[in-house]
């Protein structure tokens, strides 16, 4: 989960560490609401991909409180005025696995929705009482598996076994239409009246393709078998007759009790029974499951935990749980143990594939095994995308099918007419002979003649067989190979290798390489994508005083000077402000000092970060004494912001080093301070703050709060003048921070009196154990103590921009690509990041849309549209400007009231309406806008006329909704780039999804089509590789159409000269080899290797990218031009030999041989003419193909059984043969060449000019030194 | 040494993830990148023109030097009384099929003079026809019974004996014969080596003899001497090389003496072959030969036209480059430079 999302998502299903004094029963409910929301969201997606419908579904439920969107105007203190905002409630991370795995069955969906509603009312076992529940008898696998046949723990990701390989593989292969076409043609050819080709010959292409694919599939499956075997043969300790004994994973059954040690992988989905921790706490890492690398907590139930020890497990009970499903964030079950019945939830289960961390051991009972584990149910591959160009290609293939049909029809009708005309001669024509003329029993019987209509029909079918390659089936295979080759070059590109993480570029999808060259919109996540997502504590405002502004200069030297001894070694060094440090060192009782003390205590205590102590004996040199015991400490947390804060506190001497469920221990400058945690109100996006209630050793109870500025200032105590001064100072500091692009938090605290504490405690107890509306009650409880706070200060955390981001964005912009940034951050941060990465520039007009109601949003949109003259001429803009001036002021005031730190640069933007526009819109407004078609339309109009669009505070599903907004209304290609799980929906929705292998695990990468290490690589990916791929594939497709059509047309013209009898002058083998051997290799090589421009030129002129989205390399017009050229060339191919040999004794096979070689040379020379870059391998492929063709013909003509025996030897001796070929080549290509030249002289394309300048420059560079010498 | 290896091993393993830079993998191989500079364009057109015009002239000259004489005889050899009943005339065994044509040689013809017969409207390339043969049977005596594709001429109907050579092509063997008399003396026609040597050697067996051919059933054409092996039946071999087009010539023989101008030659034709049925014309062709074969002005003319066009293009482009030159690779011609602000 991206750290910016942390701020706004409350529906986090992972329970945060609570105070564990309460009945542990409460714990199981911690995640119910979140899980419900997640389920509902997921369900919405399944039911209908349409985002809006999803929100409707939510609205109908009672989940409005779960909104991830806080209403900035109405903080939680006014619960009566809450509004049902449904949109953000969907936390994408939960939904993502569903989407990845594709459609669920309708049955389970219905089931789930029923369950969701039940639970929202009361957590009960209604669903579980049904027969569908699964009963697990703990430690009694026999009984468990007796009645039901649960799957064993053996997994199988492989598709085939030795026996099933052939039939199953063939079955799968024939799912492709292309192969069915092949098969149908081959089958047609087996019919006696249609046998155009020899029977074996006609099967050859199909068999060839089938074999190649089968070998590839077989190899892949063998690898899967191998990995399955490894996985299945891993071992774990399983309780067998009272002892934990090692057992192979594949033998583990549901109901068995398994013991796992630290760092081991969990073999199946298990309910925790006990852990090494007294209270039943365990930490797991779900890296393999959802890609999140931070630790999550799981609990064993108190009831069972006490009955479990390291060596024994005396738990015998029944677990009644739901049927296996793929929702990894939900688990519903209950357990009967010692006569007590209690519920189990998601926090009590550990899933297969997770790793146990930081916990010595756990003991659990297997509930789902093998294929039924959630991990396996989620492992379905994402559905493949189809490239846009391929879509166009299919359209043109349809045209080709029409041509094919027409040609066949011409042949059939011709045949019909010919037969009618010669009807009375058919019996006697020496070359037809319809009847037997013998005197025997067959006398006057018809011979292979089925009447004119049937004959015409058969001739139609046999012409389909002859013309079959008109539909370029081989093109699909060629394209696959070409894309494979292109991927190789993308992967190997040294400029796209991220040295810092050692990650290469990855092509996860092989179908959409060419789409990279046609991108019009880039949707980018901010955190982790544009920025590094390495939070660094930069600035602090303590007690109204600003610290950290001079940090870069002071750096570490100063910090170490003032730190006499450091006992904790952090993962990374943090620069410390010396002034603040010195102030902390002073032992004074001044308010400032106390505030600072509490400030850092809050940073260290008010979080959910888990400190992990490394080995002692870490030695470092420098000022620190060597013999001192310095311990390495590593903070694991869900939010990088919190980690940064805790690390900062540690740097200032407040080191959090121990956290259990009941207390935390902080090392305050060497002094250990043990604080009891009485309660914790976790972060939620309604309150937008987090608080802990702690008891100090001296029995003082304090509540420490941190939260977003908007939610904090309203709950501060208002009182004295000093308070007010601090208030204003802090506010101005906050404005300063956020305008620098820092992420801000406000820190506050308060002492609790005993009465307050008591009231709160009872309410808290009640709320956390309540079965209904728990989160609402908890929120109300929090409101009790989160008031009248004393402002301590504020923090500014920097999320550094990644390297090269401004340059990359600038290049994309120049290339005509619209970059939209979608972030969960708040508006000011988003704008400042936008400025620093050159997305926004000072001269831009910023249109800010953040309405709080539907009407407001509508007005804002309409105003903005009117004001900036969207969709109207520049003349009209003038009039509108005056009219809307007043409204604009409203807009500003509105904005100002919305956020305290409203930036000032949109003042004075009345000047120059021609300046580029930038649209800034927040998630709240999007909720209203995206729900309504009309508003969406308006937003679309406005957004597309803006240079830059910045969406802040958006939820994951909204990101997908925005992508949809564009995708639905334009044909333009979209690319989404992101690194976190919250970007998955967007990545999957966009035409091209790019994942950044960043800090936030691999979920985005798993969902993406391409993955890379840094954002800046997108520049080369799109501008260079995308351009190349598009140009290559575009040409490849056109050329392949041409290549096959010219051959087929040539055959067609000949058939018109054979009384429509579908004779082919070419030998069967030549016909088959033509597309398989004679001409296939050069196209593949050119498709992989050719490049029109060097990467330097492409990066120098980003505008050249425009040819991609303008469809310049492949479009309908080009297709038709190519087809006209094809007809011309085929006519030349056919008629020149025809006229040359008109009155001669040439036989059909010699003619065929001439045509074969002529067409092969022609298409190869045609290709050669269009090649931009000749390397050795291109020469080999082109000229080699011609030589191979000759070789094949020599071989074929040397086999006496074939009728074409010796023709090539015979022909090659005659000079007429050679001059005919020469004539064909020149005459066929002359028009094309001339057109090309004329076009390049008078209408040179940008690519052409850039190419010329590139080559001329090179030549000049070569010449220059010589000139200097001569001068 | 060992230590060093150990040290380097992990580092190299770590580095192995980094793409290894090669010119190939970075698509940076030295390459020839042609562009259509004016020089190239003009040179290409000029070369084509300069190359093609001489070839065209040569070919045309060669073609013109071929002497050719063509006689259509299907109509001439039909007695006027049968003019409307040609079919019964040709099918009858009783009618006299011999006819004589007198020819005065117009130009001197040098030996060897090739004699062709030319048929019209005869679809030897019809699929039914082309396939109606069995190459195994023709080659190999043992494969005599191999009759695949030979329907309907595979076996004799009454005795069920395989026909050698089987199939429609052989059955319809051309059976007109020609004799040439000059001053009442037979002009020898060499009928040896009119077929491809390769066919004689490998496709038609020297031990395969015609059998049951044209016996009893409807007779399609010429009969074969059953004592001569197929490899020596050159007329059959020539006939069985199916023609590519519905109008075709086949070699009948060669006259190996020169024919002088004004030689009187009497052509005696046995008009046996029935083309009246489908309106096919029959012609007799005398032709000398050159390196490029028979008389055909097409290639030469085409070469001249293409050569001329190319030269024309070359000149046009020279003029174009002079009148309206476009500096190559001038960035100011880039679309976004030509009309600033034109790009949205």
Automatic annotation (TrEMBL), chain B:
GO cellular component, one term: Golgi apparatus
A Pfam family assignment: CDC50
Major subcellular site: membrane
Name of the protein in question: ALA-interacting subunit
Family the entry assigns: Belongs to the CDC50/LEM3 family.
Keywords annotated in UniProt: Membrane, Transmembrane, Transmembrane helix
Transmembrane parts of this sequence: 40-62, 302-323
Isomerase listed as a keyword: no
Subcellular location: Membrane
InterPro entries: CDC50/LEM3_fam (IPR005045)
Organism: Cajanus cajan (Pigeon pea)
């Amino acid at each position: 989960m991206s750290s910016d999302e942390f701020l706004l998502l409350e529906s986090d299903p992972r329970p945060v560490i609570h105070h564990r004094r309460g009945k542990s029963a409460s714990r199981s409910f911690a995640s119910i609401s979140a899980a419900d929301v997640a389920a509902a969201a997921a369900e919405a997606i399944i039911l209908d991909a349409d985002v809006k419908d999803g929100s409707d579904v939510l609205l109908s439920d009672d989940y409005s409180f779960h909104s991830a969107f806080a209403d900035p105007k109405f903080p939680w203190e006014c619960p009566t005025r809450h509004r049902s905002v449904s949109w953000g409630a969907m936390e994408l991370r939960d939904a993502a696995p569903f989407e990845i795995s594709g459609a669920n069955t309708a049955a389970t969906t219905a089931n789930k929705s029923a369950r969701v509603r039940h639970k929202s009312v009361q957590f009960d076992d209604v669903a579980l009482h049904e027969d569908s529940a699964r009963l697990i008898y703990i430690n009694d696998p026999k009984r468990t598996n007796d009645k039901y046949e649960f799957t064993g723990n053996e997994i199988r990701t492989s598709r085939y076994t030795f026996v099933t390989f052939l039939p199953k593989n063939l079955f799968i292969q024939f799912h492709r239409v292309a192969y069915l076409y092949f098969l149908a043609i081959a089958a047609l050819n087996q019919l006696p009246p249609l046998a155009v080709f020899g029977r074996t010959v006609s099967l050859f292409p199909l068999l060839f393709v089938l074999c190649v694919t089968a070998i590839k599939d077989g190899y892949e499956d063998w690898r899967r078998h191998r990995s399955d075997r490894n996985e299945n043969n891993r071992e774990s300790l399983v309780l067998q007759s009272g002892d934990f004994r090692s057992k192979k994973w594949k033998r583990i059954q549901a109901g068995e009790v398994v013991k796992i040690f630290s760092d081991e992988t969990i073999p199946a989905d298990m309910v925790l029974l006990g852990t090494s921790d007294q209270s039943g706490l365990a930490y797991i890492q779900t890296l393999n499951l959802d890609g999140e690398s931070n630790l999550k907590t799981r609990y064993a139930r108190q009831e069972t935990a006490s009955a479990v020890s390291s060596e024994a497990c005396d738990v015998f009970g029944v677990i009644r749980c739901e049927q296996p499903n793929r929702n990894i964030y939900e688990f519903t079950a209950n357990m009967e143990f010692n006569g007590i019945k209690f519920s189990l939830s998601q926090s009590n289960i550990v899933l297969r594939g997770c790793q146990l961390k930081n916990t010595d051991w756990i003991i659990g009972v297997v509930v789902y095994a093998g294929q039924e584990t959630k991990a396996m149910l989620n492992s379905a591959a994402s559905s493949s995308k189809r490239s846009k160009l391929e879509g166009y290609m299919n359209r043109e293939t349809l045209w080709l099918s029409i041509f094919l049909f027409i040609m066949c029809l011409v042949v059939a009708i011709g045949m019909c007419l010919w037969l009618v005309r010669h009807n009375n001669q058919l019996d006697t024509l020496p070359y037809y002979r319809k009847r037997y003329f013998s005197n025997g029993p067959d006398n006057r019987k018809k011979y292979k003649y089925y009447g004119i209509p049937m004959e015409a029909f058969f001739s139609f079918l046999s012409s389909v067989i002859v013309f079959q390659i008109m539909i370029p089936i081989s093109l699909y295979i060629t394209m696959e190979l070409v894309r494979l080759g292109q991927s190789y070059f993308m992967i190997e590109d040294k400029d796209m290798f991220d040295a810092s993480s050692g990650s290469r570029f990855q092509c996860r999808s092989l179908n959409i390489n060419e789409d990279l060259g046609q991108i019009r919109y880039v949707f980018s996540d901010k955190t982790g994508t544009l920025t590094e997502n390495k939070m660094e504590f930069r600035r602090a405002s303590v007690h109204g005083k600003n610290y950290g502004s001079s940090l870069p200069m002071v750096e570490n030297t100063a910090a170490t000077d003032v730190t006499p001894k450091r006992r904790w070694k952090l993962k990374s060094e943090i620069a410390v402000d010396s002034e603040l440090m010195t102030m902390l060192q002073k032992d004074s009782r001044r308010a400032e000092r106390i505030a600072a003390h509490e400030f850092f205590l809050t940073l260290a205590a008010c979080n959910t970060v888990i400190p992990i102590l490394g080995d002692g004996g870490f030695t470092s040199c420098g000022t620190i004494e060597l013999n001192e015991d310095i311990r390495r400490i590593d903070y694991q947390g869900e939010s990088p912001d919190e980690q940064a804060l805790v690390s900062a506190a540690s740097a200032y001497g407040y080191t959090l080093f121990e956290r259990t469920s009941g207390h935390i221990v902080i090392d305050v400058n060497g002094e250990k301070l043990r604080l009891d945690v009485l309660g914790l109100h976790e972060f939620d996006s309604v309150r937008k703050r987090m608080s802990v209630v702690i008891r100090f050793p001296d029995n003082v109870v304090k509540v420490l709060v941190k939260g977003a500025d908007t939610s904090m200032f309203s709950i501060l105590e208002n009182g004295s003048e000093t308070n007010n001064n601090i208030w204003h100072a802090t506010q101005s500091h906050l404005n300063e921070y956020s305008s620098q692009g820092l992420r801000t938090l406000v820190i506050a605290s308060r002492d609790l009196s005993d009465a307050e504490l008591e009231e709160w405690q009872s309410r808290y107890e009640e709320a956390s154990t309540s079965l209904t509306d728990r989160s609402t009650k908890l929120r109300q409880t929090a409101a009790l103590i989160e008031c009248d706070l004393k402002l301590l200060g504020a923090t500014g955390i920097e999320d550094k921009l990644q390297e090269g981001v401004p340059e990359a964005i600038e290049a994309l912009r120049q290339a005509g690509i619209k970059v939209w940034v979608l972030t969960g951050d708040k508006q000011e941060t988003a704008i400042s990041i936008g400025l620093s990465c050159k997305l926004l520039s000072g001269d831009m007009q910023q249109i800010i849309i953040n309405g709080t109601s539907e009407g407001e949003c509508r007005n804002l949109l309409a105003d903005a549209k009117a004001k900036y003259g969207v969709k109207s001429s520049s003349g009209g803009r003038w009039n509108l400007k005056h009219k809307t001036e007043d409204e604009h002021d409203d807009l500003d005031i509105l904005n100002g009231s919305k956020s305290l730190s409203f930036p000032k640069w949109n003042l004075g933007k009345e000047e120059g309406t021609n300046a580029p526009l930038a649209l800034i819109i927040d998630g709240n407004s999007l909720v209203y806008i995206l729900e309504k078609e009309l508003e969406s339309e308006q937003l679309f109009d406005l957004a597309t006329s803006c240079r830059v669009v910045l969406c802040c505070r958006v939820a994951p599903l909204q990101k997908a909704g925005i992508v949809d907004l564009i995708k639905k209304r334009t044909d333009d290609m979209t690319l989404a780039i992101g690194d976190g799980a919250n970007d998955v929906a967007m990545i999957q929705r966009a035409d091209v999804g790019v994942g950044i292998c960043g800090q936030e695990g691999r979920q985005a990468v798993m969902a993406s089509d391409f993955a890379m290490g840094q954002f800046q690589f997108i520049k080369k990916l799109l501008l260079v590789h995308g351009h190349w791929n598009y140009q290559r594939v575009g040409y490849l497709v056109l050329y392949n159409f041409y290549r096959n059509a010219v051959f087929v047309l040539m055959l067609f013209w000949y058939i018109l000269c054979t009384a429509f009898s579908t004779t082919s002058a070419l030998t069967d083998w030549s016909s088959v080899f033509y597309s398989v051997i004679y001409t296939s290799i050069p196209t593949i090589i050119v498709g992989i290797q050719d490049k029109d421009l060097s990467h330097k030129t492409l990066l120098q002129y980003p505008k050249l990218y425009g040819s991609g989205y303008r469809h310049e390399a492949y479009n309908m017009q080009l297709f038709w031009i190519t087809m006209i050229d094809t007809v011309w060339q085929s006519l030349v191919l056919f008629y020149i030999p025809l006229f040359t040999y008109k009155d001669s004794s040439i036989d059909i096979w010699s003619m065929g041989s001439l045509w074969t070689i002529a067409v092969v040379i022609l298409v190869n020379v045609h290709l050669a003419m269009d090649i931009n870059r000749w390397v050795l391998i291109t020469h080999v492929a082109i000229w080699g193909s011609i030589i191979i063709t000759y070789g094949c013909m020599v071989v074929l003509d040397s086999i006496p059984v074939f009728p074409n025996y010796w023709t090539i030897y015979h022909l090659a001796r005659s000079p007429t043969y050679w001059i005919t070929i020469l004539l064909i080549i020149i005459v066929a290509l002359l028009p094309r060449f001339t057109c090309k030249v004329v076009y390049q002289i008078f209408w040179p394309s940008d690519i052409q000019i850039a190419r010329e300048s590139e080559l001329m420059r090179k030549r000049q560079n070569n010449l220059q030194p010589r000139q200097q010498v001569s001068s | 040494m060992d230590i060093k290896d150990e040290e380097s091993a992990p580092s190299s393993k770590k580095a192995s993830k980094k793409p290894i830079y090669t010119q190939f993998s970075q698509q940076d191989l030295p390459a020839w990148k042609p562009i259509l500079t004016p020089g190239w364009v003009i040179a290409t057109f000029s070369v084509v023109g300069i190359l093609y015009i001489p070839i065209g002239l040569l070919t045309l000259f060669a073609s013109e030097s071929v002497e050719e004489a063509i006689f259509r005889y299907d109509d001439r050899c039909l007695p006027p009384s049968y003019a409307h009943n040609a079919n019964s005339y040709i099918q009858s065994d009783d009618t006299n099929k011999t006819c004589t044509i007198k020819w005065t040689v117009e130009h001197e013809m040098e030996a060897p003079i090739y004699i062709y017969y030319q048929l019209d409207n005869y679809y030897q390339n019809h699929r039914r026809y082309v396939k109606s043969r069995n190459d195994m049977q023709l080659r190999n005596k043992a494969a005599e019974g191999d009759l695949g594709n030979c329907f309907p001429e595979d076996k004799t109907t009454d005795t069920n004996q395989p026909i050698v050579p089987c199939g429609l092509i052989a059955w319809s063997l051309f059976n007109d014969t020609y004799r040439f008399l000059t001053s009442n003396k037979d002009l020898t026609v060499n009928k040896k080596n009119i077929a491809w040597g390769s066919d004689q050697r490998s496709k038609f067996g020297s031990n395969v003899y015609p059998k049951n051919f044209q016996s009893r059933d409807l007779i399609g054409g010429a009969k074969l001497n059953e004592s001569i092996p197929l490899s020596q039946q050159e007329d059959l071999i020539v006939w069985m090389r199916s023609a590519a087009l519905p109008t075709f010539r086949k070699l009948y023989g060669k006259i190996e003496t020169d024919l002088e101008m004004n030689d009187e030659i009497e052509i005696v034709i046995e008009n046996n072959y029935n083309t009246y049925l489908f309106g096919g014309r029959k012609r007799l062709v005398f032709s000398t030969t050159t390196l490029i074969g028979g008389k055909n002005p097409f290639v030469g003319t085409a070469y001249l036209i293409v050569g001329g066009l190319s030269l024309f293009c070359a000149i046009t482009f020279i003029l174009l480059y002079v009148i309206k030159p476009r500096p190559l690779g001038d960035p100011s011609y880039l679309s976004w430079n030509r009309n600033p602000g034109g790009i949205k």
